[in-house]
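Hey, I was hoping to borrow your eyes for a little while. A protein chain has come my way and I'm curious about its shape. Take your time with it, there's no hurry, and the full record follows here:
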Amino acid sequence: MTIRVLIVDDQMMVREGFSVLLNAMPDIEVVGEAVDGRGAVEQVAALRPDVVLMDIRMPELNGIEATREIVAADAEAKVLVLTTFDLDEYVYQALRAGASGFLLKDASARQLAEGVRVVASGEALLAPTVTKRLITEFAKLSDTPRRGSLSQVEELTERETEVLVLIAQGLSNAEIASRLVVAESTIKTHVSRILVKLGLRDRTQAAVFAYETGLVRPG
């Protein structure tokens, strides 16, 4: 199945460069481009892409607000944020707004394509060690309201809570299955139930939730 991608960046060279790299992949197709967040929201509604490569700093409507609107519209598209450096508070804000992960703009063609595939599949955190470091760094500094509360965590079973903690620690489904000595399909079922119970879109949001509710402590 071909992964449909929308590229959003106010720099033409970035859009064209990413478009060439991604269209060279047999399983990825760039279906559109946008130069700002407002255009991104409109293009997502019109084109229904699977993945949106979203720059953060743009005129009209920035990537954080655009991500929030796309998620609020219940779009199926997964947002992959583009940034120039990993420890960026704006990236953290984008993750809180609903982005599924982030990618450095100097990523290689292989990393770019793999990042798109990972986010499209929803199976694993993108660059889990970096994502974990970003979340832990800014979760303890954030003065914004927490995404959820421990009362929501109480709705989870003991095993689901255990899986949520391991997700927040950056483990993939396969790694969690190995750690808990169960089938990977069982972990996938647990992850799906966790997301439904907590009202979250994907694993990245689950990790942010775990840190912001204090279920997992930064460290």
Summary: The chain has a mean pLDDT of 85.
